[in-house]
Design a protein that fits this description.
Largest sheet: 6 strands, mixed
Structural class: alpha/beta
Strand order of the largest sheet: 2-1-3-10-4-11
Radius of gyration: 22 Å
Order of helices and strands: HEHEHEHEEHEHEHEHEEHHEH
Distance between the termini: 62 Å
């Protein structure tokens, strides 16, 4: 009897495996929705639209961008979690999700670790430690020394309250032992305007937002926050080289709802790699200070497990809260 039961179980497992493979081969059977938690025109949205064109050409189905903003990205995240796990809804988000997991914990009705299925880490862009030209510091070491001897402290900026830019400024205070006030704005644009106008002394700015001002001389840069040097700013050292463990990667990634069949996840992962290798996207990435990654699902999962606790510690030490 046991032998017969084992045989039946084996047949059932093979049947299920074959059914999943068949589903993956037929997928996508209809239009695929890509949920973007931010407004049109931002870094996440622009990449989503470029990738969607590549996906449509490769797979012959429409990939529709659906911008669902608000609540620190939680609206789009919840929509993704609540969608059928059939491969026709994708969440394309940024490193902000690793901040939201702590900062908006009381509002979140889903678990980032267990309710989302990682597909791929798409790209990486650094935050750039950028100064107003009048600040007399030519290195991170000189900036720290200046901050320590400035009466009343210096003023730094952050894109929005709770953004990676904001939290990286607070992280800098913590690891360097300085007491700079980190002022927050309504977005990356207003924060950079505050820098070039001299309202703030420095900021950890997203690379695409600060690049034009570095080229024009309205701002100067000292370092990047990614683990490795940026291909767009190869002469800048990493913060990690001066303060081991100081990393803040403004990454972008795609997720499915939990329960999406693995063959579909694997097929989408393959399509992402193909898209990132198209001439259009290969030309776009360096222009926007983006480095393509194309990770495995497991590598994206490992990234989350590193990022969430890191920002949780910064939030706790700085006693950051949002209304």
């Amino acid at each position: 009897m046991r032998t017969k039961a084992c045989a039946l179980a084996a047949v059932a497992a093979i049947s299920i495996g074959c059914a999943l493979q068949a589903a993956a081969q037929q997928w996508p059977e209809k239009s695929v929705r890509i949920l973007v938690p931010f407004p049109p025109g931002g870094g996440t949205d622009i990449q989503a639209r470029l990738l969607s064109v590549a996906f449509q050409k490769s797979m012959g189905q429409n990939f529709i961008i659906d911008n669902r903003t608000g609540a620190g990205g939680l609206i789009a995240g919840q929509l993704a979690v609540d969608s059928p796990p059939d491969g026709h809804t994708i969440l394309f988000t940024s490193g902000s999700i690793s901040v939201a997991a702590t900062l908006y914990a009381k509002r979140m009705k889903f678990d980032v670790y267990t309710d989302l299925s990682p597909i791929s880490w798409i790209s990486s862009t650094p935050l750039v430690l950028s100064l107003h030209p009048s600040v007399p510091a030519k290195s991170v070491k000189e900036l720290v020394a200046l901050a320590k001897r400035t009466p009343g402290g210096m003023n730094a900026g952050g894109n929005t309250a709770g953004s990676t830019s904001h939290l990286t400024g607070e992280m800098f205070n913590q690891v360097a032992g300085i007491k700079t006030t980190v002022l927050t704005y309504r977005g990356g644009g207003p924060a950079v305007v505050a820098l070039i106008s001299g309202e703030i002394d420095y900021i950890f700015a997203t690379a695409p937002s600060i690049m034009p001002h570095l080229k024009s001389g309205k701002a100067k840069a000292l370092a990047v926050t990614t683990p490795k040097r940026s291909s767009a700013l190869p002469d800048l050292p990493t913060m990690n080289s001066m303060y081991p463990g100081f990393e803040s990667d403004n990454w972008y990634a795609m997720f499915y709802p939990k329960g999406t069949p693995k063959p579909i996840v694997d097929k989408m992962n393959t399509e992402i790699r193909k898209a990132l290798d198209t001439p259009e996207i290969r030309a776009f990435m360096p222009r926007e200070a983006l480095d393509p990654v194309a990770s495995s699902p497991e590598e994206l999962s490992a990234l989350l497990k590193r990022e969430i606790p890191k920002y949780a510690k910064v939030i706790q030490l700085a006693n950051i809260r949002v209304e």
